[in-house]
Specification:
Blueprint: H1 2-16, E1 21-27, H2 40-45, E2 49-50, E3 54-58, E4 66-68, H3 70-75, E5 91-95, E6 100-105, E7 118-124, E8 135-140, H4 143-159
Parallel strand pairs: 1-3, 2-7
Antiparallel strand pairs: 1-8, 3-5, 4-6, 6-7
Helix pairs in contact: 1-4
Length: 160
């Protein structure tokens, strides 16, 4: 009986662990947060962002976060209020849902243009790479994993 439970446990580990996708949560600017006079391009340089990851913008008002296009990023121009309102909670979480280039700016005074409060990243498809030290790990289970866990659970029930 003990050997069946041990075998079942090993089977679950072999089935579930290799297929766990590691979604990452990146705190923009790490402990510095989202503020002027910080090099966000240097911060993002060695990070790999994947679809499913989350950016966390921590800041104090009056700062804000606007998602912009490449021109808006380059020229520090915010979208019109009708297009998109700014994020203003001070703890904004943005899930990266699609691959491609993403741009974010602060629209307060000259924070973007003169003080560098802007971030450009590239989001890639595919499985996440191992976590950088500044990321928090989370687990996402696929339908396949749930199905396999159910089968193993039935096996345990029948074997017991």
């Amino acid at each position: 009986m003990a050997s069946i439970k041990f075998f079942t446990l090993i089977t679950m580990v072999v089935i579930l662990l290799p297929t766990i996708a590691m979604a990452m949560e990146f705190v923009v600017g790490d402990d510095n947060g989202w503020k002027p006079n910080f090099d966000y391009q240097a911060w993002a340089k060695d990070k790999v962002f994947h679809v499913g990851d989350t950016l966390v913008f921590n800041y104090q008002p009056p700062h804000n976060v606007f998602k912009v296009n490449g021109t808006g990023f380059k020229e520090c121009v915010k979208p019109t209020a009708n297009d998109q309102p700014p994020l203003t909670s001070g703890n904004d979480k943005i899930e990266l849902k699609t691959a491609g280039n993403k741009w974010y700016i602060c629209s307060v005074k000259d924070h973007c243009a003169a003080l560098g409060q802007k971030l450009a990243i590239n989001v890639t498809e595919g499985p996440p790479a191992p976590a950088p030290s500044s990321a928090v790990r989370g687990f996402i289970f696929s339908g396949y994993q749930v199905f396999m866990a159910a089968i193993v659970g039935v096996f345990i029930a029948v074997a017991a």
